[in-house]
Amino acid sequence: MNGFRNLTPSLALSICLFLSARGVHAHGHDMSKIQEGEFASEDPIDAILWVHILLQMVAFGIIFPTGMVLGVLRNRWHVPTQVVGTVIAVVGYFLGHMHKGRVFAKNVHASFANWLMLMLIVQVVFGIYLKFHITKGFHGKIRKVAVVGHGIVGKAMPVVAWVQMLFGGIAALGFCREDHLGQCLAHFIMGSAFIGYGVILTLIMLVGQVWLKRTGRSQEFFDSALIAAWGCVNTFTEHSWGGPWVGNDIQHTTMGVIWWCAGLAGVWLSRRRDGSPKRNFIPGFVILITGWAMSAHPQHLPLSTMVHTIFGYTLMAAGLSRIIEVAFVLRDQNTISADGDANSFQYIPPFLLYASGFLFMGATEEQMQLISDAGITHVSYILVLYSFAFLVFLFTNMLIHLYAVNSVPPVPPKDDEQAPRLSRMNGHTRATDSRQIRDAEEFELEGLMSDDEHPESPSTLGKNNEARVE
């Protein structure tokens, strides 16, 4: 009953949001203020709308990702964090319909907001059900579904929230309409892909080595397979086949061709003759040559030319540093660190991918025209975009650090067989005590071995980090 009383406010909040969503959507604004052909009225953005933007960025951009990591760790602060985020998100959602300033035409941000809030409601319902810890009878089967659903929705939330925040910026500025839609989608999708790739590289580098070893494949196998798939998509979507070749169709299509050609080569080179995983230079080279191609991409505005040039140079640097990392820093190994950290040079390729993503997303035709009309130089604009990259890079590393330092419980004393197990919420436990005790014994025995008794290539990476990813 105590758990029920504690969860009642969250449940009531979710039900209230669900029942009132239709009413809020119907509230609307005076669309007659919008002149024909315009995306919004001429009214300024009022304080309520600014508060809406701030609250949603805090909730979906900071609190929910942090709560997701705490949920993976089964940390006791997971529920309070998510409750705070939910309250802020709901308040921000209503404020988005209550502002009295600028009126916007129908846009994808407003439509997608309802789906995002529906995901939030589903996540809250799953969380409330799991909090009751009902495991007997039919509820045992439902619980398994709820556990999987709660995990999937929770991990998808940061990605969906990122998309919604991009939609919000696009809607506020009136971008990506009519003839600008195609190039706008290309910039935002590809830019987000670069940032996502940087996030994945950071995860694998710091906490994913055990998972990678368990797959029996090198990281370049997965990178090359994705590059090949993306190249196939670009080859057949960058030009309207059957129609005339216009603009940069040829360059975009040939870029797709080299991606799938290089990707297939990377997949082939990712295994040794005995079938064991092997690293290679292909993904880094693809990034490098893509940056070179984009740096020479013809543009209409001088400002746009400079931004695309710096974007290309940044991407080239990411590819080159990736090749140097694999070939000379790691020397074809997955890691050179036994404590789960990384060499300082290894942080360079991921960060440059973050920066490349923001530079590409910030280089659409409409953005370049807006910045050019405002008299802002390319130097100032690029520094701002690099600042955004540093902030996202910082926050990603903070979340990974939060996971890494809390995912490995202390090893209980070897002679204390009655040592309590470190329990997790929802009935799950962390790495088993027996496994931890065995690792401790092996560590002690290793200190007693002479240098001649050590194997030729000892590795403690799996022992040190395995509990972090399980």
Automatic annotation (TrEMBL):
Any idea which UniProt keywords this protein has?
Answer: Membrane, Signal, Transmembrane, Transmembrane helix
For this entry, the protein name equals: Integral membrane protein
What's a Pfam family in this record?
A: DUF2427
Gene3D superfamilies tied to this protein = 1.20.120.1770
Q: Which PANTHER family match?
A: INTEGRAL MEMBRANE PROTEIN (AFU_ORTHOLOGUE AFUA_6G12730)-RELATED (PTHR31685), PROTEIN YTP1 (PTHR31685:SF2)
Provenance organism: Mollisia scopiformis (Conifer needle endophyte fungus)
Enumerate the spans annotated as Protein YTP1-like C-terminal domain: 161-403
Q: Where is the composition biased (Basic and acidic residues)?
A: 430-440
Query: Highest taxon of the source?
Result: Eukaryota
Could you list the residue ranges that cross the membrane?
50-70, 77-95, 115-132, 152-173, 185-208, 281-298, 310-330, 342-361, 381-404
Task: List where Acidic residues composition bias occurs.
Answer: 441-450
Question: Looking at the keywords, is Membrane present?
Answer: yes
Q: Per the record's keyword annotation, is Membrane included, yes or no?
A: yes
Start and end residues of each stretch annotated as Disordered = 412-470
